[in-house]
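The following record pairs a protein chain with its ligand, iron/sulfur cluster.
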Amino acid sequence: MKITRKDFLRLSGLSVLAAGAVRTFEAAKAAGQSAIRPLRGSGGAPRKQLAMAIDLRKCRQRPGCDLCMKACRDAHNVPVIADPRHEVKWIWNAPFAEVFPLEQSAYTERNYTGSPLPVLCNHCDEPACVRVCPTGATWKRSEDGIVMMDWHRCIGCKYCMVACPYEARSFNFVDPRPYIEHINSDFPTRSMGVVEKCNFCAERLAAGKQPACVEACPANAIAFGDSSDPNSPVCLALSASFSLRRKPELGTGPNVHSIV
Ligand code: SF4
Ligand code: SF4
């Protein structure tokens, strides 16, 4: 059987992911399935981990709204490329059945058919993408748990894209610059041949601002903050309502929650 380069990358990534997933799944089982279980630092104190909760009930009240996505594109020079093979996604809309295939019910069918929901990188506790990157171009930041990218170190091998179980990473198959609607000169543009994804607005947080999507939402549907702080907006939102995370059974520990 002939194995193409693409098959090789996919198989290598899947085996690394499978090995990591078994270990992290065991850890998740041992620790229970609490969605806002705080991580522990070296001294046993809760470790800061930024997280997001998107209230889909509020999103549903505004059919067709994409202001969070537009704000993210404008803040980060994300190109708009019509060809789906070359699309670059930081935060995007997907059907409920695709995002939560095991969580469908009469309720979700009634309320979410035709109502796509926003999805983004989960800034996982155990990011499979970080585990496979051969150059250290992506890493989990110790101070707040953001999974970062350094485009200068990315060699475009796409291992991280294969390893991520959420398709949260995009590859620049073409030069993205001609497809940027409004260039933000305060944020770098990327070149062809590198991977990119949501950065939880690390540059805005450093300036004391909220993430662009959080700020742009007119319905206050997105809560953001430290999941180790029970009084943070994200913990308060999650303690008041039922929420789902994508594929928690993999043990990746996703930090984006959808309130349904
Ligand atoms: S969602 Fe994917 S890209 Fe984001 S941290 Fe998790 S594994 Fe990495
Ligand atoms: S947190 Fe920032 S980078 Fe991530 S989706 Fe929201 S606006 Fe985009």
